[in-house]
Amino acid sequence: MAVAVTPDTKKNYLTALKEAIAEEMARNPDMICMGEDIGALGGAFGVTDGLIAQYGRERVYDMPISEAAIVGTACGLCLNGKTVMVEMQFIDFISCGFDQIVNMTATYHYRTAGEVNIPMVIRGPAGAYGGGALYHSQMNEAWFANSPGLKIICPSTPYDAKGLMKAALRDPNPVIVYEIKDLYRKREIEEVLPEEDYVVPLGKAKVVQEGDDVTIVTYGQNVYHALGAAEKLKEEGFSAEVIDIRTIVPLDEDTIVESLKKTNRLVVVNEAPRTCGFAGELLSRMTERAFEYLDAPPVRITRMDTPVPWVKPLELYVLPSVAKITEAALKVCRY
Amino acid sequence: MAVAVTPDTKKNYLTALKEAIAEEMARNPDMICMGEDIGALGGAFGVTDGLIAQYGRERVYDMPISEAAIVGTACGLCLNGKTVMVEMQFIDFISCGFDQIVNMTATYHYRTAGEVNIPMVIRGPAGAYGGGALYHSQMNEAWFANSPGLKIICPSTPYDAKGLMKAALRDPNPVIVYEIKDLYRKREIEEVLPEEDYVVPLGKAKVVQEGDDVTIVTYGQNVYHALGAAEKLKEEGFSAEVIDIRTIVPLDEDTIVESLKKTNRLVVVNEAPRTCGFAGELLSRMTERAFEYLDAPPVRITRMDTPVPWVKPLELYVLPSVAKITEAALKVCRY
Amino acid sequence: MATTTTDTAQTSPDGQSSPGNRPSDRLTPDDYRELLKQLYLARYFDVRLIKEKKRGRLRGTLYSSHNQEAILVGSLYGLEPMDWISPIHRDMPAFFLKDFRSGWDNPDRMGMTIEEVCSQVWGKATSPGRARDNWSHIGSKSKRIIHSTSMLAGTIPAAAGVVLADRLNGLNTVAVTYNGEGSTAQGVFHEAINFAAVEKLPVVTIIENNQWAYGTPTHYEYPLEDFARRADGYGIPGLVADGQDVIDVYNKVMQAVEHARSGNGPSIVECKTFRAYGHGDHDDDRAEKYRPAEEVEKGRKRDPLHVMKARMIEMGILTQEEADKHPAEGKGASEVTDADFPPEVSEYLSRGVNFAVKAPLPDETEGAMWVFKEGE
Amino acid sequence: MATTTTDTAQTSPDGQSSPGNRPSDRLTPDDYRELLKQLYLARYFDVRLIKEKKRGRLRGTLYSSHNQEAILVGSLYGLEPMDWISPIHRDMPAFFLKDFRSGWDNPDRMGMTIEEVCSQVWGKATSPGRARDNWSHIGSKSKRIIHSTSMLAGTIPAAAGVVLADRLNGLNTVAVTYNGEGSTAQGVFHEAINFAAVEKLPVVTIIENNQWAYGTPTHYEYPLEDFARRADGYGIPGLVADGQDVIDVYNKVMQAVEHARSGNGPSIVECKTFRAYGHGDHDDDRAEKYRPAEEVEKGRKRDPLHVMKARMIEMGILTQEEADKHPAEGKGASEVTDADFPPEVSEYLSRGVNFAVKAPLPDETEGAMWVFKEGE
Ligand SMILES: Cc1ncc(C[n+]2csc(CCOP(=O)(O)OP(=O)(O)O)c2C)c(N)n1
Ligand SMILES: Cc1ncc(C[n+]2csc(CCOP(=O)(O)OP(=O)(O)O)c2C)c(N)n1
Ligand SMILES: [Mg+2]
Ligand SMILES: [Mg+2]
User: Fold this and answer.
1) DSSP code at position D359
2) Res A308: pLDDT
3) Which ligand is nearest to the CA of C279?
4) CA A224, CA B68: separation in Å to the nearest integer?
5) Does residue A136 carry a catalytic annotation?
6) pLDDT band at C376 (very low <50, low <70, confident <90, very high)
7) Do residue A29 and residue A138 come from a single domain?
8) Is B78 within a domain?
9) Residue C209 Cα: closest atom of ligand 1
């Protein structure tokens, strides 16, 4: 699936990620990639395609199926001056390397009073809606948001995917990247990317659509559901502001507060399980900080507190949707 | 440390737990205990003291240092009809068995449309304030609250410890028990326990102290900090209602809502890291459900988003305290 | 390193496999005929699914067991009905092959019916798990099949647990777990086998060494040629079987099973085989990116159907004519037709497919059900 | 099962240890004298801490290395300054013993100063980690000591990572990791050693087999007598050393180190020893609950100081009179006094203790610092 490289060729989300990693590999001779099947195959989805041909085993490691050792070895490499991109074949398998992430990697800077920092990027395909069932659909970012020392990002567009990935690979801290696999090859979101090097700084939300009546805050695939809901709301005479936070940790609260000053109404959307998901965190922060601006109870639309089931009707039943967001936002608007 | 067994002997939190497990072992011949050093030693804190002498290796397993295999084997035992109590030597080490808990155990009932249920109790010493540093102080319940299929409890008194533990060991679902190790031998909280068998049902909060001006909701060790704050508040002329939720999943929302109808003010206290901790979840639920009753922005007092550092002044600096709760509650009361 | 398939019938570390003393010596000609039929069925199941998938009738990824069927057929044939198994992604036929000896249509059989397995593949409410999780992630408490998650090697500790429970209840069962060679790198593999060895639990770990873990060759997974050598770290038997030969698999697995059932603890049985297609069907067209064509050709050469037929001809229990009647061996999924299989095989499966196709989808509201079991 | 300490100097699996060809043959009498002094220092460090702890001057748990010092002294002596180590809870003396041969007070030494180590024990701001994590969880990027978490075996993959980075940078270093025998049951042990073996990384994994993991005896941890046999599962050398004998430890570890530095990959060296006290000081009074007194008496009999002195007397580089001058060997922490140690040893440590006692506590606000590193 070679993409012609004329300057104004639109590129998909996957290509954006691929370019970001390839360009950082070229820029930073101390950068290494590790993961399962990322060499000759180029990764399950092809994000590392071509890297092994260019850099060889010295910088691109097909690893045994050992998530704990992959993260731990990467941690050692970073401790000793390298920058490591770790690919989880699916973000769901991060559970098998969990201890090495939350206890070894995340805390290294803290434990050493700053002597050590771990510039590691752990990235992988994430998200539901694609029939991946329980173990190929997860958005488990809340586990890591509750584990101090980790930054977390989740891009929703090719432009952001490339810019955030580059920022992550230049960040001196461990960053976990939730790549939305359903967006990898989505035609509708392809866009022309700048020819020159650019980053999207971590910790900056983006107002995707301006509006006055309600603020819908989300990230990942639900940005599109929120935009869909905004369409429906327009039909009902309400104008929704849609914010894509892009970075989960650290959160850009100011952008959201600014919006709430205008709309006075908040809907948070998140496909992770409801309890202790990031939607609750976001809602809490806004309630604490912007209570006075809120004219209606803020609302979360999240996955139900269930795993992601396989069969389509069940899967959609438990996940946020345009309809659910619309309904919730309407209720908030009409409060 | 034998305790004389006259009916009105006060018992500590540790003894309460010990009795609950011993009584359930006697009651349920299909119950098995697994963990590191739980045999001849009786566990690092002595919770399983005496069980091996009574039941032998057939029902009490000193396990290799293999948290994943411990949980996984326990899961297999439960799948085949047993009830298993798994001791984590410290709850912090649960990270090493993480995948087997969240992906294998928690979802088993869901995946099998109810054919299988896993009556497993995973319990261990938890909590900060004791100088245990990063890896002997954790309250990591939010990871599991965001993983559907797990119940989570955290008792704060001997009575509740025994009653909740028994309920957990009779529950057909996996339950994680956060035992507050700083309370294990705390003299001030010892109490006389009923001689007859009793359970404290999961999912029921307890109003520890009634009050009218502000509702302080918490669990674990912070119940005592909240009570301390309530004292201080009284001096300032405010009466605080203190609620110990006891069960984190499923949460007894009604008791809290009832309280808010009266006090119209909410402070949530939790020693876990702030972001995506359970305090945020609780605050969100109340904001969604009881927004109209809230006369002031609800507030969270949590650990800062840091690990738990070792040295005392640092440890206390990042954790909730009587002073911090008091200050926050006063602000809420005076809003 | 390890990329060739070897006939290792002679290399077994203990004397059990010397002629006259092998488990297979107890097999009758009828057993051989049954085994051949099961091989056909496993192959037919796979090619039929490949075709259905190509026609867009199935969702999810199909991990073909093509060319690896002898491992399932040979390992399952000697088990007792009450024994446990835990199949993994490439082992779909195991779900119905379990306890197949009790009769393909025996309603009391301790294995899944073909209707149940097909219902799972088609994602229907009649699947044992009501299609809540996908493909090979089914199982059955009553039929003694452990449900896997996707996390590789993750069922080995559960296998230890179920047989420990049986032992406590006075039941002498064995658990057979299936794992790709790549999965043996997982930490939980080590933890579970270590504990099983300490406790002498009757767990037999089969390693299906098909030379590749997705796009990764064995020399990046493990430093030695034989993955069975992992057993040496636990002082347990590590047998190597020719995974293309039902009878050799049967012999080695039965040695391990008898060792386990006699109270001597766990074993590892590595079965050398070769993955015929891509890792999953999504990978079929690009596997050549990492896997040289010559290797594929070489690896596919010893079709288990062919090996079995040759054995039977040599033993005089199959004529060349009979053998040639249904020439499925050596043919790819796109080349083979129903005529290449005995009719009872295609008919059996068709019954399952027809049932599944007509079966209802689960109702969407089931998505929210069974998170917790209600207490009594 | 494995509960006895064996002199296994002869059982090494390769020819390297035959007399005349052993690494120790390169040691001079001065080396022996230095090693003995280091043994004294390690012992003194431990007993001094035990005493300070008993007096209530220290927080946290003290995991005594009493009777196990030969492992640290012998394994560290032959390393190059740029080599990496990762000590674990029972290895506190390793932090200052690293690169001790460069001179106890050499400011350029690639090991921690005694002031730094004592500052950590006393929880002061002058600790390398500013006392943010406790006891043995210190380390130093610049001195090449990996910081452990509490999660056992968790530093082995990091050890693989640091030497891989060195190799990529053209630096031929070795990483030596320390682990209790109980910790070898962890999944990450398997994953990391498997990868190190695949990649032929220069990682030497020392197993301090002190017969107990907290309250659990070895036969519940592992099915074989020698934990070194874990190496067999990866086809790497698994050596067994007499952990009470500095010289045997030195020989076996140096064999493994030279094997690694020559590009041949990882090894495991099991050192047989015996834990003198409880698991931690909180366990001292109750260890008798699970550990029979006779076993303790037997296990403590071969004091590494005694073994070393006997060797030196036999070699004619120590007189009996000299040996008896500081009779610390065979004495418990409560029996021993400063007079049982060479004065330079107690003075050296006292310098560290005095420094630490006077050093400031970190300011409470540091609790909120260094969660993230600010970008450039
Ligand atoms: C813990 C974990 N990591 C990664 C994966 C993704 N994955 C699925 S199958 C596979 C390759 C498995 O190879 P092998 O074990 O040899 O089995 P095979 O597919 O060859 O039969 C990988 C890496 C997974 N399922 N689980
Ligand atoms: C993953 C993990 N599980 C449990 C513990 C608790 N723990 C601390 S030390 C110890 C025993 C260690 O035994 P061993 O490895 O033999 O070392 P030793 O203490 O005997 O030197 C245990 C179980 C831990 N630190 N990490
Ligand atoms: Mg394979
Ligand atoms: Mg030990």
Assistant:
1) S
2) 98
3) 1
4) 38
5) yes
6) low
7) yes
8) yes
9) 16
Give the Å distance between the CA of A125 and the centre of ligand 4: 41
pLDDT in tens, chain D (376 residues): 233 333 333 434 444 456 678 999 999 999 999 999 999 999 999 999 999 999 999 999 999 999 999 999 999 999 999 999 999 999 999 999 999 999 999 999 999 999 999 999 999 999 999 999 999 999 999 999 999 999 999 999 999 999 999 999 999 999 999 999 999 999 999 999 999 999 999 999 999 999 999 999 999 999 999 999 999 999 999 999 999 999 999 999 999 999 999 999 999 999 999 999 999 999 999 999 999 999 999 999 999 999 999 999 999 999 999 999 999 999 999 999 999 999 999 999 999 999 999 999 999 999 999 999 997 5
D198 in C contact zone (CB under 8 Å): yes
Task: Name chain B contacts of D209, Cβ cutoff 8 Å.
Answer: none
- CA distances in angstroms from B121 to B43, B285, C165, C274, D130, listed in the order given: 16, 27, 17, 42, 38
Quick: pLDDT tens for A276-298: 999 999 999 999 999 999 999 99
Q: Which residues of C290-327 are buried (b: 16+ CB within 10 A; e: fewer)?
A: bbeeeebeebbebbbbbbbbebbeeeebbeeeebeebe
One domain for residues A243 and A186: no
Can you tell me the distance from the alpha carbon of B144 to that of B124, in angstroms, rounded to the nearest whole number?
Answer: 14
Do A45 and A186 lie in one domain? The reply is yes
Enumerate neighbours of C (3 or more CB pairs within 8 A): A, B, D
pTM: 0.97
Per-residue pLDDT reduced to its tens digit, C52-80:
999 999 999 999 999 999 999 999 999 99
Please work out whether the CB of residue C22 comes within 6 Å of at least one atom of ligand 1.
Answer: no
Instruction: Tell me which ligand sits closest to the C-alpha of residue B96.
Output: 2
Number of domains in chain A: 2
Q: How far is CA C91 from the centre of its chain?
A: 4
Q: Calculate ∠ Cα A254-A257-A260, nearest 5°.
A: 155
Residue A51 in domain: yes
Digit-coded pLDDT (tens) for B278-333: 999 999 999 999 999 999 999 999 999 999 999 999 999 999 999 999 999 999 99
Q: What is the identity of the amino acid at C105?
A: D
Please check whether residue A198 lies inside any domain of the structure.
Answer: no
Ligand 2 pocket check: which of D88, D270, D279 to mutate, most ligand atoms within 8 Å of Cβ?
D279
Let me know whether A166 and A25 are in one domain: yes
Q: Are C95 and C178 in contact (CB under 8 A)?
A: no
Assigned CATH for C9-350: 3.40.50.970
Subunits with 3+ Cβ pairs within 8 Å of B are A, C, D
Measure the CA–CA gap between A141 and A164, rounded to whole angstroms: 16
* Closest residue to D195, CB basis, from A69, A99, A107: A69
Residues 6+ apart with CB under 8 A from A228: A322, A325, A326
Domain boundary residue, one of A132, A160, A192: A192
Please name the residue of chain B whose CA is at the shortest distance from the CA of residue A301: B288
| Helix, strand or coil, per DSSP, at residue C89 | coil
**Domain residues of chain C, as ranges?**
9-350
CATH code: domain of residue B116: 3.40.50.970
The CATH number that applies at residue A244 is 3.40.50.920
User: Closest ligand 1 atom, CA of C183?
Assistant: 15
Place of tokens 């504990």: C195
Domain that holds residue A166: 10-192
Looking at the structure, do residues B262 and B113 belong to the same domain, yes or no? no
Whether A161 is covered by a domain: the verdict is yes
ipTM of the complex: 0.97
